[in-house]
C-alpha cells in the first residue's frame, strides 16, 4: 500500500481487519511531471521486505501506472493490474473506461475500477468448462450416413481452416484402423473434400466400419455426429470445441503455431509436440522452415493413447467433469 498520507491510510488499513499485515511504501510526487516515483533505496527496501514472503499473486488496485512497477518487487509468480498493454509483463489485466453521455468524461466513481478488476480476476480463476446438451442428439439423424446407430462410433475430423493445422490424413486412416480393430468402434471420418483422398492408399478405406464423409452435412447432422459419438478426434478447428460443449470425450491434435492454452478445447485431451519455435503464429505451410515438425511428428500411437484415456474416463467420470490433461501434451 502506498502512503499518500503517512498516518491516515496505513492506520485505516490496519484497523479494517482485512489484512494480516500492512507494509507502506514512500512515494514522492513530482508536480512538474505530475506523477509519483519511488527512490532506488525505497525500492530496495521494499524488495527485501516482500520477496522472503514468497507471494503467489501480487495485485495493484491503482488505475494509474505509477505503482505498477512495484508489483515486480514482490517476486510473485502472477501479477495483476490495469493497462496490460502498457505493462506486457502482467499475468492478467483489464482496461476500463466509462464515459458520461453529456461531457464524455469518466462516468463512474474510482471505486468502480478496482471492483471491476477483482471481479474480472475472480471470473477467470473460477472459470469452469460447461456442457450444453444438443437438441440434435438423436441417432436417427445419422441413419442416412451409413452408420449403424445401434453401435458405438468414433467421429474423426481431419479438416481445418488452414493446411498448417491438418494432421496427415494417412494418420487419421491408421487411427481409424486401430479404433475399428482394437476397440470395435465404427468410425465416421470427416474430410474437407473428396480430393483429399486422392493418392491416399489405405486398407482402412475398404473396411465396412469406416464411413468417409466428404459431402457437406447439415448442422443437425454434424451436431448429431459430435453429440452421439463415443469419442471425437480432430484438428485445431471449430468442431472440437462444439464436441467439447456437447459433452463428448474429445482428443484434439494441436499444432504449435498458436497457444493451446488459449485455443485448446476446455475438456478432454490435447496432443501436441513442443518445439523450440512453438507459438510461431504461422498460417501457411510454406511459412514453416521446420516441416511442421510440431504437427507431423505426432504419432498415431500418441493419439491412440489419448483416445484410450478419453474412452476410459468416459466410463469412470461424470459428464460434467473437466478433463484437461497437460500430462498428455508431448
CATH homologous superfamily heading of the largest domain:
Glycogen Phosphorylase B
Beta-strand proportion: 5-15%
**Mean pLDDT, all residues:** 88
Trace the largest sheet across and list its strands.
8-7-6-9-10-11
- Tell me the series of helices and strands, N- to C-terminal: HEEHEEEHEHEEHEHEHEHH
Shape, principal axes of CA atoms: elongated
Number of strand elements? 11
Oligomer class: single chain
- Measured distance between first and last alpha carbons: 43 Å
Q: CATH topology of the largest domain, which one?
A: Rossmann fold
CATH class of the largest domain: Alpha Beta
Largest sheet: 6 strands, parallel
Catalogue the unreliable spans.
316-330
Q: What structural class do you assign from the helix and strand content?
A: alpha/beta
Rg from Cα? 27 Å
Total separate domains: 2
CATH A-level architecture of the largest domain = 3-Layer(aba) Sandwich
The number of helical segments is 9
Classify the helix fraction into a percent range.
Answer: 25-40%
Give the structure's gist in a few sentences.
It is built from 9 helices and 11 strands.
Describe the structure.
The chain has 330 residues and is α/β, with parallel strands linked by helices. It has 2 domains: 8-125, no CATH class; 139-328, Rossmann fold (3-Layer(aba) Sandwich). The chain is built from 9 helices and 11 strands. The strands form 3 sheets. A 6-stranded parallel beta sheet has the order 8-7-6-9-10-11, with helices on both faces. Strand 6 (153-157), helix 4 and strand 7 (186-190) form a beta-alpha-beta unit. Helix 4 crosses helix 9. The two termini are 43 Å apart.
Amino acid at each position: 500500500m502506498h502512503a499518500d498520507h503517512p498516518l491516515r491510510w496505513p492506520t485505516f488499513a490496519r484497523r479494517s481487519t482485512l489484512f494480516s499485515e500492512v507494509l507502506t511504501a514512500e512515494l514522492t510526487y513530482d508536480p512538474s511531471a505530475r506523477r509519483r516515483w519511488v527512490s532506488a533505496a525505497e525500492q530496495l527496501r521494499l524488495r527485501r521486505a516482500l520477496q522472503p514472503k514468497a507471494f503467489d499473486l501480487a495485485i495493484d488496485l491503482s488505475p494509474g501506472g505509477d505503482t505498477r512497477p512495484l508489483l515486480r518487487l514482490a517476486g510473485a509468480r502472477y501479477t495483476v493490474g490495469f493497462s496490460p498493454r502498457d505493462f506486457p509483463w502482467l499475468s492478467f489485466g483489464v482496461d476500463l473506461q466509462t464515459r458520461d453521455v453529456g461531457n464524455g468524461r469518466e462516468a463512474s466513481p474510482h471505486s468502480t475500477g478496482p471492483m471491476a478488476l477483482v471481479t474480472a480476476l475472480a471470473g477467470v480463476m473460477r472459470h469452469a468448462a460447461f456442457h450444453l446438451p444438443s437438441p440434435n442428439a438423436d441417432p436417427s439423424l445419422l441413419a442416412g450416413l451409413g452408420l449403424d446407430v445401434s453401435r458405438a462410433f468414433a467421429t474423426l475430423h481431419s479438416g481445418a481452416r488452414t493446411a498448417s493445422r491438418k494432421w496427415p490424413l494417412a494418420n487419421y486412416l491408421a487411427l481409424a484402423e486401430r479404433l475399428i480393430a482394437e476397440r470395435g468402434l465404427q468410425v465416421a471420418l470427416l474430410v474437407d473434400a473428396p480430393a483429399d483422398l486422392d493418392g491416399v492408399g489405405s486398407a482402412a478405406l475398404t473396411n465396412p466400419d469406416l464411413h468417409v464423409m466428404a459431402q457437406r452435412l447439415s448442422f443437425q447432422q454434424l451436431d448429431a455426429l459430435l453429440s452421439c459419438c463415443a469419442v471425437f478426434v480432430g484438428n485445431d478447428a471449430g468442431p472440437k470445441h462444439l464436441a467439447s460443449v456437447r459433452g463428448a470425450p474429445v482428443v484434439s491434435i494441436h499444432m504449435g503455431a498458436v497457444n493451446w492454452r488459449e485455443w485448446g478445447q476446455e475438456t478432454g485431451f490435447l496432443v501436441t509436440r513442443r518445439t523450440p519455435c512453438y507459438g510461431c503464429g504461422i498460417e501457411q505451410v510454406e511459412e514453416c522452415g521446420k516441416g511442421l515438425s510440431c504437427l507431423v511428428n505426432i504419432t498415431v500411437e500418441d493419439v491412440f493413447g489419448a483416445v484410450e484415456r478419453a474412452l476410459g474416463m468416459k466410463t469412470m467420470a461424470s459428464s460434467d467433469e473437466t478433463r484437461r490433461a497437460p500430462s498428455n501434451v508431448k
